Amino acid sequence: MPPELYRPTDRRPLASRQRPFWQKTASVLASAHVSPNGISLAGMACAIGAGIGLALTGRVPQPWPRILFLAAALGAQLRLIANLLDGMVAIASGRASRVGELFNEIPDRVSDAAFFIGAGYAAGGQAVAGFVAACLAIMTAYVRAVGKAAGVSNLYQGPMAKQHRMFVMTLVCVYLALSPASWQPAWKGCGLIAAALWVIAAGALITCARRTHRIACVLRSSKERP
Questions:
Q1: Which helix (H) or strand (E) holds 23?
Q2: How far apart, in whole angstroms, are the C-alpha atoms of residue 136 and residue 156?
Q3: How far apart, in whole angstroms, are the C-alpha atoms of residue 120 and residue 130?
Q4: Distance of alpha carbon 8 from the chain centroid
Q5: Integer distance in angstroms from the first to the last C-alpha of the chain?
Q6: 172, exposed or middle or buried, with CB in 10 Å at 0-12, 13-18, 19+?
Q7: Backbone torsions φ then ψ of 190, nearest 5 degrees
Q8: In the chain, what is the greatest distance between 2 CA atoms, to the nearest angstrom?
Q9: 99 or 149: which carries more pLDDT confidence?
Q10: What are all long-range contacts of 70-74, with beta carbons under 8 Å and residues at least 24 apart?
Q11: In this predicted model, what pLDDT tens digit does every residue of 164-199 receive, in sequence order?
């Protein structure tokens, strides 16, 4: 009897998985024997590249900062696309595995750290804000993982889950790349990137609190059941 295929559970609920374009893309990649773990690593590489590009925006002459902001926005979106496709390709090709769960999680934590720390050193950024945002972004995933280890289904609610964080940064990067310099406010050397990082940090802190509260409620409810 052939071994039963591993099927990951508690996947992030994404409506885009049902869209024909992404289903077709996943099918093509699976047919081409593209490694799902390789897709995860490629997404991490995009986030690292975006973080490096952001860090360089304050160190190069125009027009390079605008080009790098656009590249960072693209890198953020490519990271999300890789996060979408790695699981779809794994399931479509029958290569989903428990090891794949590691590749689904660990590169994401590296991605968050590289991207937000890099943003902290960007033009208009603030190093402290970058480190705080990175730590709290990683913390949202840590709380979710602890909850799952305790027997609670994965919690993906925001307000600053991964896709929300990347949306905010993508929006700001595109704005900085395309808007006139006179439309880019700054306060004591800190600009929109610093403001976005603090918004993300605050939202991630709320996300951690919401997830922790939900996990505690579920665990208490389970304990009280006869």
A1: helix 20-31
A2: 15
A3: 4
A4: 19
A5: 39
A6: buried
A7: -105, 135
A8: 69
A9: 149
A10: 70/173, 70/174, 70/177, 72/119, 72/122, 72/169, 72/173, 73/169, 73/170, 73/173, 73/174, 73/177, 74/50
A11: 999 999 999 999 999 999 999 988 879 999 999 999
| CATH class (in words) of the domain with range 33-224 | mainly alpha
Q: How far apart are CA 43 and CA 22, in angstroms?
A: 16
Q: What is the pTM of this model?
A: 0.90
Of 8-17, 81-90, 93-102, highest mean pLDDT: 81-90
Q: Using the predicted structure, report yes or no on whether residue 218 has a pLDDT greater than 50.
A: yes
C-beta pairs of 221-225 under 8 Å, 24+ apart in sequence: 222/151
Encoded tokens for 223: 């304990």
pLDDT at residue 4, as a whole number: 53
Q: Give the whole-angstrom CA distance, residue 16 versus residue 35.
A: 21
With a CB cutoff of 8 Å and minimum separation 6, the contacts of 213 are none
Lookup: tokens for 78: 């490519």
- DSSP secondary structure string, 110-122? HHHHHHHHHHHTS
187 φ/ψ angles, rounded to the nearest 5 degrees: -130, 110
- For residue 215, give the nearest of 138, 141, 147 by alpha carbon: 147
Binned at pLDDT 50, 70 and 90, residue 135 comes out as: very high
Name the band, by pLDDT with cuts 50, 70 and 90, for residue 26: very high
